[in-house]
Each structure stands twice: as C-alpha cells, then as structure tokens.
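Tutorial, part two.
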Amino acid sequence: EPMPPRRLFGEDEKEAAVRLFDEAIRTGGVFGYNGPEEEAFEGEFADALGGGFADGVNSGTSAVFTALGALQLPGGSEVVVPPITDPGGAMPVVVLNCVPVFADCDPRSYNIGAEQIEAVLTERTRAIIVAHIAGEPADMGPIMELARGRGLPVIEDCAQAHGARYDGRPVGTFGELSAFSTMSGKHMATAAQGGVVFTRDEELHWRQKRFADRGKPFNLPDAGSNVVPGLNLNLNELAAAVGRVQLRKLPEIVRGRRAVGEGVKAGVADLEAVSVGWHPPQAECSYWFLRMTLEPDHLTVGKDEFAAALAAEGIPVNPSYRHIQAESNWVRTRRSGWCPWLFGEIEPDPPPMPNAVAVCERAFNIGVHEGYGEQEIREIVAALRKVEAAYRKK
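Running the prediction step on this input gives:
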C-alpha cells in the first residue's frame, strides 16, 4: 500500500477561514493585514519560542530578507551564508547590496559549522546566517561562541526546523534574529505561503517590521512619514487565521516527526552501509525529511542505484539534495547588473566546498511526515535492511 498522504489542513483551518469571510460579509468590510488575527498569531508564535517579538511576512525568503534588513548593514558588507540551502536563504544578501560568502559545511551534516565559518571571516564580515537544514539543528554552541567573540550578529534560518531544539532551547532563540518559513510544505503553514521573523531584541523587531512594510514609522510616533526604504512583505489576516490553528497543532506535528526519525534510526542502528545522518548530541531534530548517509565501501552499487531500489520498495526517496548555492548559475554568472560583486575589488569567487560535495554524494533523503506511524516506520526500516542486504559486499 502507498504511504499515507500528509493531510496538513483539516476542518479547523477551514472553519477559521470561513469565520473570517463570514465576518466580512456580515459587516460589509474586508480583512487585510496587521489586524487582530495577525497580531494574535505573532504573539502566539513568540510565546511558543519562550517570549520575544514576532512579525508575520509573506514567505520564508522575505523573513531572511527582512531579518537582514533590520541589521542595516553597509553596502559591500560580507555576510557568511550556508553552503547547502534554498536559494532564498542566500539571495537576500545580494538584494541588500551585500556580498554572500559561502562557508563549507560540517563534514558530517548538511549544516554549516563553526570551523568552516571561521575559515572565511575577513575584516569585511558583518553577519552570519546559519540554516538548520532538514530539521537538524546546527551545532550552535561553537558557532555562537565564535560569533560573540568576533562581535558578529547571527541570523538563524529555521525554515526547515520548526520545533527543533539544541541544548534544550528551541532553534531560532540563539541568534539576534531568526527567520521561519510557513509555506505549505513546512512543519506548519499559514495556508499556501508565509514566514515569520523572530527576535528577543525589541529595537531589532521594530527595525525589521518597518523594513517589511515600506519603512512605515512603527513605534516612532514623531517620525511623520516613512523612515527607511523597504518593500510590502506583509502577511495577511487570512494566512494568520490558518497559522493560528496550525501553531496549536505544531507540538503534535513535531512529536510525530521526531518519533518517525528516531524509530527509523533505532531500526537501522546495526546496519553497516546506511544510517540516519549524524547530528550534534545536544540536538533534538524535528525531521523535515530523513537525511540518510551511505558508506559506499560496504556496497556493490552507488547511491543512485541504492536509492532507486528503495523507491522500488515504495519508499519516498529523493536521491540528491545538492542545493550547494556556490554551484548555482546565479552565483557563478553574477548576472544582476546592480550586484555588489561587480563593485571593483569585491569580486570573490566562491571557495571550494569539498565537505558539502562529499556530504551530498553520500546522502539521500527519505520523505516523512507526522502522519506516519509504527507501520510506516517498520516499512521504511524493512526496505532499508532489504536493500542493504541485497547490495552489501560479501
């Protein structure tokens, strides 16, 4: 039988949307943005992270963009970015007239590491972006120690890591700011698209909120007019109403995904050739997907053949997650005419990414979600054991 569908949205989300429309129809008004639903959603989101300030925006990319905008970095500043990430986790640096500097990843993970960050720091470095890919927390202890020692602000990209924890704390609470995606493929969603910026620094919150809404003078009663250039990146009342329902479901969603990940990990712990990927011992993953690692010396086939065999067993497999942005056309060709790379001496070529390449060549991903139960865990484990047995060197 096929794996069960996710069924992210249900009657609760539908009722929240219908209530909003019913109220608009009853009053003859409209629902927009920055209204009671969005205000409530932002407060509840911040409370879920232990308190602070949250602002809803229209995508995870916009969340990274506005978090960077709050730092008000001078043009030409270098910003360290993750090696393996969605383009939206790095492109905002260029759009803000700064230079993305790609650091390699920890050789055991898709995630950036402190040693690799330190290797690319220069006198022009002004900030660091850390992404928690696949719901696996980056090793934040050494990263934050390095950043604090150099006086560099950190932005956490938590687009794939709602509910993940490091050393007992939620990811997103370590850096100066954090960015979350709430598009429909993530742990929780504000309908089709959305994002949230979180910080515990009130001044950064207001700077970010102004930047996300065309420089409106929020919390500046005497400003008189818009105070900084910015874009209209607002969330909206309909998205927030759905997001509030989803936020209430998030703890159970994370528990379900963690149970699947840990169940599969335990089920293959004795295998020689395949395992659930390493993460820091302080980490509690929320598993947006399972990053599986192969030991090719133990197999008679390569990764693609191994993944194809798993897919033939009915397991949802992505054989490659080579989202190494330094290899992308937008980085290699630098086609944007206003791109800061074109400003005289600031023309760095991305350094080699040997760790990221090696990790991607040994890893494949298994799609999972919180709707999987004991049966699906058993099926994934059985398929992994079967395929390893078939291709293991004798």
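The longest strand covers residues 125-131. In part three we will examine how such features are distributed along the chain.
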